[in-house]
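Dear colleagues,

For the upcoming journal club I promised to circulate an example of a predicted protein-ligand complex. I picked one with guanine because it came up in last month's discussion. The inputs are reproduced below in full, followed by the predicted structure.
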Amino acid sequence: MVLLDGKKLSEEIQAELAQKVSHLKSEGKKIPHLAAVLVGNDGASETYVASKVKACERIGFGSTLIRKESSVTHAELMTVVQQLNSDENITGILVQLPLPKHIDEEKVTYAISPSKDVDGFHPVNVGRMVKGLPCHLPATPYGILMLLEKYQVQTEGKHCVVIGRSDIVGKPMSILMSRNAYPGNCTVTTCHSKTKNLKEICLSADIIVAALGRPEFVTGDMVKEGSVVIDVGITRVPDATKKSGFKLKGDVHFESVAPKCSFITPVPGGVGPMTIAALLMNTMNASALDY
Ligand code: GUN
């Protein structure tokens, strides 16, 4: 069994990006600049945004964090996005989700200029992804593709089972694994809360992507020998022995699943760090996209 080490690969990608940035700087060219918008003070969102901003700073990107109270109005937030769209120094924009209930999340994310939408959530980017055109891929699926490629995991002709159909992970992952490219060319089955015989379907999988957000849902009895297992889960579960008061649990029961796998991602240190690397790649490439 080989661990797909997302932490290591993410560090390698960040080191390469840092070199590219210093090259751009030495040539007096425009530096990528990410603007992150954080509304309210949800603990997990705070942590995610802080790690995105910190990563930008570490590799020499510009970064701007815009914080708004959870009482911010829809109109105010739309104005923030519009100002970032027209600011030539800002090359990438993300609005951290979830947003408070009184805000129309779709309207806000769809207001971001598609070429600055480094999360890849805008329908223009989703459509371009489906068509196989140059675009911002959503960060988590993009990070998983880079990890599969790095470890030369064979995907062609394989049966890939994606558990979860979220717009952010499950849906795009299913589309990307079936595309006519590497990594891809899989026969994909998308599973969700209404799926019957999930265990049987998983047992026929060569590759499982677990992205349903239920800790340790995938157990050893659901996985065949030699499988590739990608664990997207990062649920916080209380743990009094940790300083933070919680630990991260994946969607895969690692102890029972790992011994059966050819490749598996750990949690933490697997998909999570790759999501950051993918976001930085999108930010780096944003100025080359003009649509
Ligand atoms: N909330 C959970 N995941 C994400 C993400 O990838 N991007 C944004 N903007 N918000 C999120």
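Two points we might discuss: The mean pLDDT is 97. The radius of gyration is 19 Å.

See you all on Thursday,
B. R.
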